Amino acid sequence: MPEVTRAYYEDSYQKRLSATVTAVDDEWIELDATIFYPLGGGQPGDIGVMTGPDGNEHKVIDTRKSDAPNQIRHQLDTDDHGLKPGDSVDIEIDWQRRLKHMRMHTSMHLLGSLIPVPVTGGSVGAEKSRLDFDLGEHQIDKLDLTARMQQLVDASHPVVFGTITEAELDERPELVRTMSVQPPRGAGDIRTVRIEGVDFQPCGGTHVNNTSEIGAVRISKIENKGKRNRRVHLVLE
Ligand SMILES: [Zn+2]
């Protein structure tokens, strides 16, 4: 089956799309193209609505990567939806929730750029997010981080998307060293997110187009997670 078109890679702001059903497995629906982001990279799967050719609306309660490579499956709230391969559907994401994920995800990249140590984990949420650092001897402070984060946000840095091949990465080990998250290998070209003048990472997530869209940020808590590890919590005001 041809690879699903990830319309959210081209335009994270697209809220609606018409697509064709390619596979149905109980309440899970695969499409030829989607704007729904599948759970991954610390960012939750999108939710929203799928409208069938009969005009019936179905809630999409989660989005995941399929077991089949390069496919995405949308979970409806029922398996009694009547959809079958070949059907045309209209899909719409829960935009308010997604926009929060975009503002949060870009914030996480800014935060990573301020703490130059390896990132060991993280999670993006609509209300709060966190990033785990292997801090070593590095010192961090809540108020200082909040102030420096807000400076980066207010400086209106553009966010630019691209792709890089594994061969290019191999030729430029200095690029990999500056990445706080290591790029996945063996799955072809790697999508990249550049916050101009600030940060460059491999990332398949959805982001705002400019840091100014993030608004007011606050580091709400820094938690001890063992001798070297710190969990930094961030909220949007
Ligand atoms: Zn990311």
Structure description:
With 237 residues, the chain is α+β, with helices and mostly antiparallel strands. Helix content is 21%, strand content 36%. The chain contains five helices and 15 strands. The chain has a six-stranded antiparallel β-barrel. The protein has a four-stranded antiparallel β-sheet with strand order 9-10-15-14, covered by helices on one side. Helix 2 crosses helix 3. The protein is globular and about 60 Å long. The mean pLDDT is 92. The site of zinc ion has 6 residues, from helix 2. Zinc ion binds next to helix 2.
**Cα-atom Rg, whole angstroms?**
19 Å
Mean pLDDT: 92
| Global structural class | alpha+beta
Strand order of the largest sheet: 2-3-7-6-5-8
Instruction: List low-confidence stretches.
Output: none
Helix content: 10-25%
- Tell me the total number of β-strands: 15
The topology string of helices and strands comes to EHEEEEEEEHEEHEHHEEEE
Provide the β-strand percentage band: 35-45%
Tally of contiguous helical segments: 5
Described by the principal axes of the CA atoms, the overall outline is globular
Distance between the termini: 44 Å
